[in-house]
Write a structure and sequence with these properties.
The chain is an alpha/beta fold and 838 residues long. The chain contains 34 helices and 23 strands. The strands form six sheets. A nine-stranded mixed beta sheet has the order 7-10-11-4-1-12-13-16-17. Strands 20-19-18-21-22-23 form a six-stranded parallel beta sheet, with helices on both faces. A two-stranded antiparallel ribbon has the order 2-3. The longest helix is centred in the first third of the chain and has 29 residues, at 47-75. It binds ligand F55. The modification N6-(pyridoxal phosphate)lysine is found at residue 676. Its EC number is 2.4.1.1.
Length: 838
């Protein structure tokens, strides 16, 4: 029975008094949770108890919106975006939810009245580091924008028990520690114990002909794991839309459906608890370098299978027909990590739902779209066919069949062009056959995109050239973006208030409105206010640097920031070579005028990436020498800030004057840190790589410090036979710096420490560090010169922020919605959630 309007009103009023947003209600809610959830009272409650109580109070306020959103998606004839990603680098939830709900100030009042400081409680949160870097963080920004734009969406992924490792620095070396983020519980997730799916792994396939003479396959698994859904509500900014991030945890099944698996040897299939739980245990800490391990393939298949089973269940439960799956869901593959979904969809359609092959392939191709995030050959995922077969025997058969039919089509279209056929083949030929996941993703998707204009162009010219030749209509570019809620409002509240005081708050949802700041760029008093905020943020960071590293830095010096994963192509060593050159200039001429600078590095190295770890050791070793040398007189300082994660990034970006975006042209697909830093008023020194190109176009060449070879010049140099040793011999500053590293100047006279790094630079240098050194150093001189003119710098900084509208993830998501997903906003109204659906 439908309740009357009057009842609804009273229930809503009751709900409003319970989950209202005023300071008094919030305070009462915190105390209630403290008491009823934790069995604590103020006299004995710890800060963590308060953090938990406050988080539950906030979650209560998300839930009305979440339930209303889920209800709407289930009832409405509305397509849902399904984002499949092996990584989500979310960062802490509490402060973000306070901002999106619009109750930051009220919660501050509530916590003050409880004798608590809101910042302390926010700092208690263990961030969910379920990603490595850019790709995982992009997925998190996109979840924020999807909700803010009121787009129905579900993010699917893995609930890793251990996220990205915590980094510590001991004797200058990176040390890894496990990230036990769930240790104290996670108030943001809701376990749906009843929502689980069985996932088969290993075993073999039986073939038989059924009574209708149909050829059938029966996959007898070696083991079965169960995926349990853990849901995290993702609220948009000042809207009722609250989407779901559904992460799967692997467990041992207690029992399983004997009907499905009753053909034979199933006794061993109900596996060991530990083996099953291992699948969602730990995030692989590699970025841009694949690890061809069985467990990794199991992880990928596990979460993709759960997610597709879930989508199909939702679709069918609404009376949808399996043939029209793509009317309900559009599935975006975040790189090739979930590309096995193409084969799994075929298996579900053909083996489970008994759809004819051709129709199944048509449904699959209408459902999937694929985003590529890298051109680096070592990152392209392939699986040894034998290994693949041992984990997914039925999928190997399905891929072979997809490939057979697909290559038939290619043969007809290309008149049997053998080169094209072998490059497009999903399975490589040769004695060791490999399954190429990018080819599977391309073949099974209706859309393929890169993540910045240059990257998308290079994709069409290089790794996906042959795909582009045959299917140009599938290709597009979707330049990355970042959410201004987390990366400005939350991490830089002072700058945000200053901006809003001039142009109102509209920019938070419509970042193009930042152009309103341009009219103040020449205004000396605004410039002054702008630089005061920057100085405040630098002072805050300086305090943290002192606490964390014992290094004292001067907030009036240039804060030159190089923060991102450590990788040869990102060229942290180019930066440190410049630092050494500056240091030598001071040593040679102690009275030379040097604009004081603090070089701040942060980032994790993949634990197995020897040269990246050596780069960290080199940075810390140079820091040890430069920071102590009395001749330097504190004019340059070098800091390695440990454990770069979302929380630390939020502290570093607002304090940056200079943003180092110095990858070898053509290697960084997009970059997103470049956007966050520019939005916070940092000036970029960078190459024409990834989204730098577009950032420079937007902020103006005069507000961007450009250096280095272009992508074409890099290619040309390589084809001419690049010899790094020539550059070493030709540039005395470069030679001296390298000789010093080699001689042990920075390593207590033990020159052997850095030999692998030096050899790689002098004799290979695949990322053209030495070729770009001279132009980098020259541009850094222009940076220093510009900083001396405070007004000019302030103007450039303001114009950088003012022109960053394009790089909001809201813009990216709108582009995906319009061009690929064909999904529009579906605003959610708060309804009486007690009311039963008829
Ligand atoms: C993680 C695991 C594997 Cl196996 C391979 C790559 C990664 C990964 O983290 N990649 C990654 O972060 N790529 C980055 O994606 C960003 C978002 O599109 C880009 O901005 C950045 O250029 C790219 O390197």
């Amino acid at each position: 029975m439908k309740s009357s309007t009057k009842d609804t009103e009273s229930i809503l009023t009751r709900e409003e008094t319970r989950t209202g947003l005023g300071p008094e209600t919030l305070k009462r809610a915190i105390l209630n949770h403290l008491f009823y959830n934790q069995g604590k009272f103020p006299e004995i409650a710890t800060r963590n108890d308060y953090y938990m109580a406050m988080s539950f109070a906030v979650r209560d306020r998300l839930l009305q919106r979440w339930v209303a959103s889920v209800k709407k998606y289930l009832n409405a004839d509305q397509k849902i975006v399904s984002y499949l990603s092996a990584e989500y680098l979310l960062g802490p939830h509490l402060a973000n939810n306070l901002i999106n709900l619009g109750i930051y100030e009220n919660m501050e009042k509530a916590s003050n009245s409880l004798g608590m400081n809101l910042d302390w409680l926010i700092a208690k949160e263990q961030e969910p580091g379920l990603g490595n870097g850019g790709l995982g963080r992009l997925a998190a920004c996109y979840m924020d924008s999807l909700a803010t734009l009121e787009i129905p969406a579900i993010g699917y992924g893995i609930r890793y028990q251990f996220g990205i490792f915590e980094q510590d620095i001991k004797d200058g070396w990176q040390i890894e520690d496990t990230d036990n983020w769930l240790r104290r519980g996670n108030p943001w997730e809701i376990a749906k114990r009843e929502l689980g799916y069985d996932v088969k792994l290993g075993g073999y396939v039986q073939h038989y002909t059924d009574i209708n003479g149909k050829f059938k396959a029966n996959w007898i698994p070696g083991m079965i794991v169960k995926g349990i859904a853990y849901d995290t509500p993702i609220l948009g900014y000042r809207v009722n839309t609250c989407n779901t991030l559904r992460l799967w945890k692997s467990e041992a099944p207690k029992s399983f459906d004997f009907q499905t698996f009753n053909q034979g040897l199933y006794s061993g299939a109900v596996s060991d608890k530990t083996v099953c739980e291992n699948i969602s245990k730990v995030l692989y800490p590699n970025d841009e370098q694949r690890e061809g391990k069985i467990l990794r393939l199991q992880q990928q298949y596990f979460f993709v299978s759960c997610s597709l089973q879930d989508m199909i269940a939702i679709h069918l439960s609404q009376g949808g027909k399996i043939e029209r799956f793509y009317d309900k869901f559009v599935v975006q593959l975040n790189d090739t990590h979930p590309a096995i979904g193409v084969a799994e969809m075929m298996r579900l359609l053909v083996d489970v739902y008994e759809v004819e092959w051709d129709l199944a392939w048509d449904i699959t191709k209408k459902s999937f779209a694929y985003t590529n995030h890298t051109l680096l050959p070592e990152a392209l995922e392939t699986w040894d066919q034998d290994l693949f077969q041992s984990v997914l025997p039925r999928h190997l058969e399905i891929i072979q069949e997809i490939n057979r039919r697909f290559l038939d089509e290619v043969t007809i279209r290309t008149y049997g062009d053998q080169d094209l056929i072998s490059s497009l083949s999903i399975i490589s030929d040769g004695p060791w056959k490999k399954i190429r996941m990018a080819n599977l993703a391309c073949a099974g998707s209706f859309a393929i995109n890169g993540v910045a204009a240059l990257h998308s162009e290079l994709l069409k010219k290089t790794v996906l050239k042959d795909w582009y030749q045959l299917w140009p209509e599938k290709f597009s570019n979707k330049t990355n973006g970042v959410t201004p809620r987390r990366w400005m409002v939350l991490s830089n509240p002072k700058l945000s208030s200053l901006i809003s005081s001039k142009i109102g708050e509209g920019w938070i949802k419509n970042l193009d409105e930042l152009t309103g700041l341009e009219q103040y760029a020449d205004d000396p008093s605004f410039q002054q206010e702008w630089m005061v905020v920057k100085h405040e943020m630098k002072k805050d960071l300086a305090k943290r640097i002192l606490q964390r590293t014992k290094i004292k830095v001067d907030p009036s010096s240039i804060f030159d920031v190089h923060v991102k994963r450590i990788h040869e192509y990102k060229r942290q060593h180019l930066n440190i070579l410049h630092v050494i050159a500056l240091y030598n200039r001071i040593k040679q001429n102690p009275d030379a005028e040097v604009v004081p600078r603090t070089f701040i590095f942060a980032g994790k190295a993949a634990p197995g990436y020897h040269l990246a770890k050596l780069m960290i050791k080199l940075i810390t070793s140079v820091a040890d020498v430069v920071n102590q040398d009395p001749i330097v007189k504190d004019r340059i300082k070098v800091v390695f800030y440990p454990n770069y994660n979302v929380t630390n990034a939020q502290r570093i970006y607002p304090a940056a004057d200079v943003s180092e975006q110095i990858s070898t042209a053509g290697k960084e697909a997009s970059g997103t840190g470049n956007m966050k830093l520019s939005m916070n008023g940092a000036l970029t020194i960078g190459t024409l790589d990834g989204a730098n190109v577009e950032i420079r176009d937007c902020v103006g060449a005069e507000n961007f410090f450009l250096f280095g070879l272009t992508e074409e010049e890099v290619q040309q140099k390589k084809s001419e036979g690049y010899n790094p040793f020539d550059y070493y011999m030709a540039n005395p500053e470069l030679k001296l710096a390298i000789d010093q590293i080699n001689s042990g100047y920075f390593s207590h006279m033990n020159g052997s420490v850095f030999k692998d790094l030096i050899n790689s630079l002098l004799y290979h240098d695949q990322y053209l560090v030495l070729a770009d050194f001279e132009s980098y150093v020259a541009e850094q001189e222009r940076v220093a010169e510009a900083y001396k003119d405070k007004q000019r710098w302030a103007k450039m900084s303001i114009l950088n922020a003012a022109r960053m509208g394009k790089f909001s993830s809201d813009r990216s998501i709108k582009d995906y919605c319009d061009d690929i997903w064909k999904v529009g906003p579906s605003p959610v109204e708060l309804v009486d959630f007690h009311q039963k659906t008829q």
